[in-house]
Amino acid sequence: FYNTIYSRAKTFGEVIKSAELGEICKCTTIVCRLLNDTQTYKKEKEERSSNIVNILVTQSEGTVSEEEAVEEVKEMLEKNRRKLLRMVLHKKESSQLPQVCKDLFWNTSKVAHILYSNGNEFRSPEGLKSNINTLFYKPVDLSPTQA
User: Fold this and answer.
1) Among 56, 31, 53, which Cα is nearest to 41's?
2) Superkingdom of the source (predicted)?
3) Phi and psi (nearest 5°) for 123?
4) CA atoms within 13 A of residue 4's CA, in its CB half-sphere
5) Which domain holds residue 11?
6) Cα distance between residue 71 and residue 57, in whole Å
7) Contact 130, 119 (CB under 8 A)
8) I need a surface site. Which of 75, 82, 92, 118 has the fewest CB within 10 A?
9) pLDDT, tens digit, for every residue of 105-147?
10) Which pTM value belongs to this model?
11) Domains of the chain: total
12) Which residue blocks in the chain are alpha helix, DSSP H?
């Protein structure tokens, strides 16, 4: 991995300090955070923890419901997911980030999507275990589907 990065930039330090790396890292972090917040806002409300859904509801002073706030956060999530994908797929000669590095950020967002697709998998390890078993051990059904 280091050799791949080093071959594209003069120094590893240039890659670490690049605006491109900062932007792709920021976008990935936002995607992961918003995925978390859309799945954990009820629990975090009980715990009085910060969560963007609860903040939007509170700041609206009653004009925005939880459901509306969740939809707004999902829109932000989709916007940032698309932005991240554009950064990953965009090929430009001036890029200091090799594709393998960009793919790492995209794959990180995909893992977060899997972890939060059916609730908060960090707090329900059985759900995570079930997803892993399905992914690796359940045979794929290749029979033709009937319409």
Assistant:
1) 53
2) Eukaryota
3) -95, -10
4) 9
5) 2-136
6) 12
7) no
8) 92
9) 999 999 888 888 766 555 566 766 776 777 677 766 667 766 5
10) 0.73
11) 1
12) 2-8, 12-17, 19-47, 52-59, 66-89, 99-116, 125-137
